[in-house]
Design goal:
- This protein is α/β, with parallel strands linked by helices.
- The chain contains 19 helices and 16 strands.
- The strands form four sheets. The protein has a six-stranded mixed beta sheet, with helices on both faces.
- The model is unreliable at 203-232 and 303-312 (pLDDT under 50).
C-alpha cells in the first residue's frame, strides 16, 4: 500500500479511471434525465479522461512533483473536454493539482471541489458539484492519504444516492446524477491506484455494476498543448458517424483496433459514433467504408502547430464566427452564412483549433447545444492567451445560430455585434421533435420508449404516436403566442413528405407566417424548429 499519491500512482489512476468509465460508459449515458436519444455523459467523460490519460502517458518521466503530473493530467482533460461534465471534471482535476503538493489529499479535494464550483456560473445542487463537495468534506475524516480517499469515496457515494432528493427531475426519472456518478467512478479509481483495493459498491439508482462491459483501451501516451508533454503517439484523430449493423461494427472495431488506439465506438443500430487515433487516416476511412457510409467525418492532425502550441499572430482587425454543427446540411447552411462550422461533439481543443485557424483577432463562438457552452467557454479562455478576443453567444439550437448570423454587421463594433447576435438568438424560440428513448414523467405527461415527443426550449411539451401530427401540433402551440417566420431543419431520419405536410398545415392555419425549410441532416431529431 502506498502512503502518498506519487507520480506512478497518478499514472495508474489515469489508466484505471479510463478503464472504469469505459466499462460503464453506456450505463452512464442511460442516466440521462431527459427521454431524448442523445444523452452522452458517459461518452463525454470517457473521451475527456482518455485525453487526460494520454497527456499523463506523454509527460516527461522526470516530472518535478505529483502536482506537476496532475497539472498535465488536468490540462489534457481540459483540452479534450467534451460537454459540461467534461469541463467540470477537468476543472476539478485542476483544483486537485494546484493543492496536492501542499497539505495532503484532503485539502486537495477541498480545492478540487471549489474549482469545480467556480467553473459553473449558477451552481445547482444534486449534481457532480454536490458529490465533489461531499467527497472533500468526508476526506478530512481520514488519518492518512489512503484513509482520506476511502472516506471520500464513501462520502461521494452517499451524496450521489441523495441527488434525487435535491433535484426533482432526477427523482421523476428514477436516476441519480450522471456526472456525479462519473465522479464516484473517478474516486474509486483513485482508491484502487493508491491502495490496490477494487471496490465498486452498488448505489441504488446508480450505474448497474453487473453485466457491463466496455471497449478495450490502449494506453499509448500523448497529449496536446502542455510544455510538459512530448508527443509520441498516433498522428491523427479520426471521428465519424456511420449507419450500419452490429455485425459490421464488430468487424470495424477489430480493424480500427489493429490500426491505432483510443478507440471508442458508441451508439446502437443503425447509427454509431466512431473515435480513434491512428497514423494512417486513409486506412481508418477505408475500414469505415467497408462497414457502411461514414458521414460527419472529422480528421484532426494531432501533431499540428495547434497541438504543439506554436505561436500565432491573429489579425486584430479581422473578425470570424465559429459555430458547432450536428448535421451535414446544417454545416452547409452555416458555411454559406460565412461561419466556420465544427461538426459533431467537439472537444475544447477542437473548438480552440477552429478559433485560431480563422486568423482573426475577434471571434464569436456559437454553440448549438447547451451542453457545448462550457466547452466553448473553455476554448475562449484558452484563445485569450493566444491574443484572440472571443465571445460565446448563448445559443442552444442551430436555428438560433442561423438567426444570430443573419444580423451580423461588421460596420458595428465587435462587442455591439455580439450583443445584436445574442438578442436575435434570444428572440428565436427553438424546438425539436424526436422519439423518446426511455420512460419519463414530463410536464406534458408520461412518455414511453418509442413515443414521439416535442421539446420547446428543452422541455417536453407534446407527446404522441404520429410524427406529422406532433410536428403540426408543435407549430400550432408555438405560433399561438406570435411569430412571423418559421425555420424548419429536417433530420437524417425524417420521412419523405414531412416538410410538405407541416408547411401545408402552417399555410392553412397560419396564412401570414413565412416558412423556410432546409435539409439539416442532424441525427436523432427528425425536425428542428425555429420561430421568430
Amino acid at each position: 500500500m502506498l502512503e502518498v499519491l506519487d507520480i506512478a500512482a497518478v499514472r495508474r489512476w489515469s489508466s484505471l479511471a479510463v478503464a472504469g468509465l469505459s466499462r460503464h460508459e453506456q450505463a452512464l449515458n442511460q442516466l440521462n434525465v431527459y427521454p431524448v436519444p442523445d444523452g452522452d455523459t458517459g461518452t463525454n467523460l470517457l473521451l475527456t479522461l482518455s485525453a487526460a490519460e494520454q497527456a499523463v502517458g506523454g509527460a516527461l518521466t522526470d516530472a518535478p512533483s505529483t502536482g506537476a503530473v496532475l497539472r498535465t493530467m488536468a490540462r489534457g482533460a481540459l483540452l479534450g473536454a467534451r460537454g459540461n461534465s467534461g469541463v467540470i471534471s477537468a476543472q476539478w482535476l485542476a483544483g486537485l493539482a494546484d493543492a496536492v503538493d501542499g497539505d495532503g489529499l484532503a485539502a486537495a479535494l477541498d480545492a478540487a471541489a471549489k474549482s469545480a464550483y467556480a467553473a459553473v456560473a449558477r451552481p445547482v445542487e444534486g449534481t457532480i458539484l454536490t458529490v465533489a463537495r461531499a467527497a472533500a468534506e468526508a476526506a478530512h475524516q481520514g488519518s492518512d492519504e489512503p484513509a482520506a480517499v476511502r472516506a471520500a469515496v464513501l462520502g461521494a457515494r452517499e451524496a450521489l444516492a441523495r441527488t434525487p432528493e435535491q433535484l426533482p427531475v432526477l427523482a421523476a426519472a428514477g436516476v441519480v446524477d450522471a456526472g456525479g456518478q462519473g465522479l464516484v467512478l473517478l474516486l474509486e479509481a483513485l482508491l484502487e491506484a493508491l491502495t490496490g483495493e477494487h471496490d465498486e459498491s452498488e448505489v441504488e439508482g446508480a450505474v448497474p455494476r453487473d453485466g457491463e462491459h466496455g471497449h478495450g483501451h490502449d494506453h499509448a501516451g500523448h497529449g496536446h498543448g502542455s510544455a510538459a508533454l512530448t508527443y509520441r503517439g498516433p498522428a491523427y484523430e479520426v471521428q465519424f458517424l456511420i449507419d450500419t449493423g452490429a455485425g459490421e461494427i464488430a468487424r470495424l472495431r477489430a480493424a480500427l483496433d489493429r490500426l491505432g488506439d483510443s478507440l471508442v465506438i458508441v451508439g446502437g443500430a443503425p447509427t454509431w459514433r466512431v473515435h480513434v487515433h491512428v497514423d494512417d487516416a486513409g486506412a481508418a476511412m477505408e475500414a469505415g467504408l467497408a462497414a457502411g457510409r461514414p458521414y460527419q467525418i472529422q480528421i484532426t492532425h494531432l501533431t499540428s502547430s495547434t497541438a504543439e502550441g506554436a505561436p500565432r499572430r491573429p489579425d486584430p482587425t479581422a473578425r470570424a464566427v465559429v459555430v458547432t454543427a450536428a448535421g451535414d446540411g446544417i454545416e452547409e447552411l452555416l458555411i454559406a452564412e460565412g461561419a466556420v462550422a465544427i461538426g459533431g461533439n467537439p472537444s475544447t481543443a477542437e473548438v480552440l483549433d477552429a478559433i485560431l485557424a480563422t486568423g482573426a483577432g475577434r471571434v464569436a463562438v456559437l454553440p448549438t447545444d447547451s451542453n457545448l457552452r462550457a466547452v466553448c467557454q473553455a476554448a475562449a479562455e484558452e484563445a485569450f492567451g493566444e491574443g484572440v478576443k472571443v465571445r460565446v453567444v448563448p445559443t442552444r439550437s442551430p436555428v438560433q445560430a442561423l438567426a444570430a448570423l443573419a444580423v451580423r454587421d461588421h460596420a458595428r463594433r465587435f462587442e455591439d455585434d455580439v450583443i445584436a447576435m445574442a438578442e436575435a438568438a434570444g428572440a428565436c424560440r427553438s424546438a425539436e421533435v424526436t422519439t423518446a428513448s426511455r420512460e419519463a414523467l414530463t410536464v406534458a405527461g408520461r412518455c414511453r420508449p418509442g413515443d414521439v415527443i416535442a421539446l420547446v426550449e428543452g422541455e417536453v411539451n407534446l407527446i404522441g404516436d404520429d410524427l406529422t401530427v406532433v410536428c403540426c401540433g408543435l407549430l400550432d402551440r408555438m405560433l399561438a403566442s406570435g411569430g412571423e417566420l418559421v425555420t424548419l431543419l429536417t433530420g437524417a431520419q425524417a420521412p419523405d413528405g414531412l416538410v410538405e405536410a407541416v408547411t401545408a398545415h402552417v399555410a392553412t392555419r397560419w396564412p401570414f407566417v413565412e416558412v423556410h425549410a432546409y435539409p439539416g441532416g442532424q441525427p436523432h431529431y427528425p425536425l428542428l424548429v425555429g420561430v421568430e
